[in-house]
Amino acid sequence: MPSIHLKKCRNMAEMLIDKKQWFVQFFTISFICLAGLYFIGDRTYSSAPPLPDYLNEAGQIILSQDQIKRGQKLFHLRGLMNYGSFWGDGAERGPDFSAEALHLMGQAMRRYYEQGQTSPLPDFERDAIAARVKREIHFNRWNESSNVVLLNAAQVYAIDEISAYYQAMFRDPAHPGYFRAGYIRNPQDIKDLSAFFYWGAWVAGTDRPGEKHTYTHNWPYDPDIGNEPSAPTYFWSMVSIFVLFLGIGLVLYVYGQMKSTHYDPFHSHGERSLSTPDLEHKTIRPTQRATYKFFMLAMALFALQVLFGILAATDFVRPFGLYLGEIIPFNVARSYHTLFQIMWFFICWAGYTIFFLPALSQPPKGQVGLINLMFWMCAFVGVGGMIGIYLGQTGRINDTLSYWFGSQGWEFMELGRAFQILLLIAFSLWILIIYRGIKPHLNRQNIWSVPAWLLYGSAVMVLFLFFSLLVLPDSNFAVADFWRWMVVHMWVEVTFEVFTTVIVAYMMVQMGLITRIMAERVIFLAVMLFFATATLGVAHNFYWIAKPTSIIALGSVFSTLQVLPLLLLTLDAWRLHQEKQRATGLQGQGKQTRVMTEVWYFILAVNFWNVFGAGVFGSLINLPIVNYFEHATYLTGNHAHAAMFGVKGNIAIAGMLFCCQHLLSETRWNAKLLRTAFWSLNIGVALMMFLDLFPVGVYQVITVLEEGFWKARSSEIVSGDVFRNLTIFRSVGGILFVVGGVMPLVWFVLSRKRSIQ
C-alpha cells in the first residue's frame, strides 16, 4: 500500500510539470478565482451599509445623505486619505477619522446622560450610563423601507459635539490634533466632513441587522463603546492556521516528489553564467537604445519619491527647526511619495520589457515611434499629475477641476481622472508594443514560453488597472474601496508577483542559469500558486470595511496560504547563490568576458525580501485576530516598505541594470559604485524598518490592547516623544538609503558622461 500511495504522489508531481496538463490546470484555477471574485463583489454590493438620512425624534433631518456624500468627496479631493484613514484605510499620520468619531460619540453620549446628575456620580450610576451608551450605540435604528435612522436626544447631542470637535481641529491652532495644512477652513465644508466621519462611526458601532456584531465586525477595538473581536474573527483565524499547516505539508511533499522526477529549477550546465550572448558580442539594437530614456525618467522619479518622503518625515522631526509643511503639506508630500514610487516601478518595467523584445524577433516597422510616444505620455502624466495633486489637494481649484485634473485622493490612486485615463492609454500602448514584438514568436508550441508569459503578465497587470475607473466619487465608500483594493492588491500581491517571477526567470535564462524548459515550469507553478492564493486573498483587505462574515472566511484562509508560493522560492535559494562562484570561474578560464554581478545582487535581494518582507511580515499581520488589533498601525507600513521596495524596487533596479550593462560601454560600468548603492539601499531599508517602523508599530499595538485603537492613532501618540525619537533613529537608515544608495544610482543613470554603445 505505501508503494501505491508513493506512486500516486509521484504521478501528481509529474502531472504538475507536464505541459499537456497545463491547460486543464490553468482553466480550473482561473474559474475558481473568477467565481470567488464574483462572489466577493456580489456580497460587497448586497451587504454594503446603508447611506441614510439621520432624523431626530421630532422627525427633523439632522444629517442627510447629500451631506455624507459631499463630505466623502471632500475627504478625497483634499487629500485627507493621505493624512489620516477611514475604517483603517489610508495614511497613519493623522487620526483614523471613523475610529476617532466613534470614540467621541461614546464620550459625548455619556456626558449627555451625566448632565444634571449629582457630581461626582456613584460608580454604579456611572457604570449604568456606560452600559446604556454601549447598548444605544450598537442598537440599529435604521428603517430599511424609508432609509432613515431615528436618533435619540443623546445621539443628536453627540453629532453636534463631533461637528464642534472637527471645526476646532481644522480651524483652531490650539487644538491638539490641529490640521496644520490650513486650507480647510469653510465651516460648511467641515460640517460635511463631520457628517461623513459620523456615518463611518455609525457603521463601525451599529450592529448589522440579524447579527451580533457591527457592520465592520466590531472594528475598531474600543471597549468603552463595546467594540471587541467578534466570534467569526477568532474562528476563522484558527481555521486558517490549520489550513496553513496542511498546505505547507502538501507543498513540501509534492516538491520532494518533484526532486525524485529530476525537477531541478536552479541547475544549469550552460557554457556561461551571469552573462548573455548579446553582452559578450556587444550587440545593441535601435529599439533597445530607445529604452535608455525610460531608465533616466525612472531614476528621476525615484529621486523625487525619496525627496518627498523626507519632506513628509519633517512633519514628525524638524531638523534645525526646518518645516516645509506650510509650502507642501504632509498629505501632498505623501501623495507624491506613493505615486512616484508606483510610477518609477512601472517605467523601469516598461523599459526593460521593451529592451527584451528585439532579441526574440525583428522589431516591426514603427516600433521606435510607439516607444517614444509611450515615453512622452508617461512623462506628461508625471509632470501634470505633480502639479494637479498640489492644486487639487490644497483647494486651489474647484471640485470639478480637482477631480479631473487635480487629485481623486484615493490612497495609491491620487491622479486626477484625466491623467489616470491618459496613463491607462499609455500602458495599453505598452501592451501593444510587447504584442507586436513577440507576435512572430507566438504559436501553439510557444504558448507557455517565457516570452509569452512576458505578454500575459504585463497584460494582466494593466487589465487590473482598469478597475480604477469603477472607483466613483458618489459610490458608497464600502463599494468604492472594494474596487480600489481590486486595483492595489492585484498590483502588489498578484500581478506584481507574477511579473516579478517572469522577469527573474527571463533574466536567468538569458544569463545561462537555467534552461528554457525549467524556466517555463518555474513560471507556471509559481503563477498558478499566486493565482490560487493571492487572487482570493484580496479579501483580507476587506475584513473591516463593512463586509459580511463570508469575506473574512475567504480572506483569512487564502491570504494565509499566500505563504506557500513564497516557500518554494526559498527551497533552492542557497544553490542559486553559488552561481556567482561559477561565473567568476568561467570568466577566469576565458570562456566569457563579462559577469553581471551587480544585476545578480539585486535578484538575490528580490528573493530575500519576497520571503522576509512580503512573506514573514505579511503573514504576521494577515490573520484576522492579529489584523483586528494591528490594522492601520505602523506594522502595516513596515510590511509595505519591505514588500514594495524590497521586492518591486529591487526587481525594477535589477532589470534596469541588466539593460544598462548592455547599453553602456565596459569602461563606463562602475561596479564599485553600484555595489555601494546595492548595500546602502537594502541595509537602509532594513534599518528604517527595525529602528522605527517595526518598534513604533509594536508600541501602537500595545496601546490598542491597553486603551483602544483610537488612542493608538491619536495626536498624543503619533506626535509624541516615542514617535519623534524613533523617527530620528529611522533617519540613520534613511540617510544611508539616500546618500549611499539613491544618489549614486541616480547619478550613474542620469550622468551625461555615460556613453551608450
Q: Would you give an account of this structure?
A:
This protein is mainly α and 757 residues long. It has 29 helices and eight strands. It has helices at 2-16, 22-46, 65-77, 97-114, 123-138, 153-171, 187-205, 231-260, 277-281, 286-289, 292-313, 330-356, 367-393, 399-406, 417-438, 450-465, 477-510, 516-534, 549-560, 563-571, 573-577, 579-588, 597-622, 624-630, 634-663, 671-707, 709-712, 715-718, 721-750; strands spanning 53-55, 61-63, 85-86, 89-90, 142-143, 148-150, 407-410, 413-415. The strands form three sheets. The protein has a four-stranded mixed beta sheet, covered by helices on one side. Strands 3-4 form a two-stranded antiparallel sheet. Strands 7-8 form a two-stranded antiparallel sheet. Helix 6 crosses helix 7 (187-205) and helix 13 runs antiparallel to helix 14. The longest helix has 37 residues, at 671-707. It is globular.
Largest sheet features: 4 strands, mixed
Distance between the termini: 65 Å
Regarding quaternary structure, what we see is single chain
Count every beta strand, where a strand is a DSSP E run of 2 or more residues. Answer: 8
Beta-strand portion reads under 5%
Short description:
The chain has 29 helices and 8 strands.
Key terms:
757 residues; mainly alpha; 4-stranded mixed β-sheet; two-stranded antiparallel ribbon; 29 helices; 68% helix; 3% strand; globular
What topology does this entry show?
Elements: H1 2-16, H2 22-46, E1 53-55, E2 61-63, H3 65-77, E3 85-86, E4 89-90, H4 97-114, H5 123-138, E5 142-143, E6 148-150, H6 153-171, H7 187-205, H8 231-260, H9 277-281, H10 286-289, H11 292-313, H12 330-356, H13 367-393, H14 399-406, E7 407-410, E8 413-415, H15 417-438, H16 450-465, H17 477-510, H18 516-534, H19 549-560, H20 563-571, H21 573-577, H22 579-588, H23 597-622, H24 624-630, H25 634-663, H26 671-707, H27 709-712, H28 715-718, H29 721-750
Parallel strand pairs: 1-6
Antiparallel strand pairs: 1-2, 3-4, 5-6, 7-8
Helix pairs in contact: 1-8, 2-18, 3-7, 4-5, 4-6, 4-7, 6-7, 8-19, 8-20, 11-12, 11-29, 12-13, 12-25, 13-14, 13-15, 15-16, 16-17, 17-18, 17-25, 20-23, 23-25, 23-26, 25-26, 26-29
